[in-house]
Amino acid sequence: MELSVLIKKQIDADEHRGFPVIFGTDAERHDQLMRDLVGLVGEVGEFADLLKKVGLAFSTPGYVGPSLAEAAPRLRSELADVAIYLFRLSTILGGDLEQDLLQKMKINDERYRYLEQ
């Protein structure tokens, strides 16, 4: 599935659940951007917290924490939540995340060409 199709599917589902991406005023749009940003940071925090526990299991004798293999499914789930918030933020800003990513990859290709072997 192309990224643009995946984003549309998620945004349509959000709107049917009462999470709009179109607003009447910039103040309303800003308010939702802030709410979704908090959600994004929360999901990144959940990813970081679990990864920290995996690291503690490696570095701290006696600490009982998940292995990376055990944590990987939940880590991927948290990253999926992050992606959903990115989809929303981009859409609220009127962006096309697929095209924005392709453009940024092109910029990075030029910027980091000297690192290619």
Helical segment tally? 4
Strand count, sense and barrel status of the largest sheet are: none
Note poorly predicted spans: none
Residue share in helices? over 70%
The proportion of strand residues reads under 5%
Task: Give the CA-CA distance, first to last residue.
Answer: 32 Å
Helix and strand string, N-terminal first?
HHHH
Please count the beta strands (DSSP E, at least 2 residues each): 0
The best one-word shape is extended
Second CATH tier, the architecture: Orthogonal Bundle
Mean pLDDT: 97
- Please give the radius of gyration in angstroms: 18 Å
Please, how many domains? Answer: 1
CATH topology: Helix Hairpins
Structural class: mainly alpha
| CATH class type | Mainly Alpha
SSE blueprint and pairings:
Layout lengths: L2 H14 L9 H34 L8 H25 L4 H15 L6
Helix pairs in contact: 2-3
Describe the protein:
It contains four helices and no strands. With 117 residues, it is mostly helical. It has one domain (3-115): Helix Hairpins. The protein is extended and about 55 Å long. The mean pLDDT is 97.
List keywords for this structure.
117 residues; mainly alpha; Helix Hairpins; 75% helix; extended
Short description:
With 117 residues, this protein is mainly α. It has a single domain, classed as Helix Hairpins (Orthogonal Bundle). 75% of the residues lie in helices and 0% in strands.
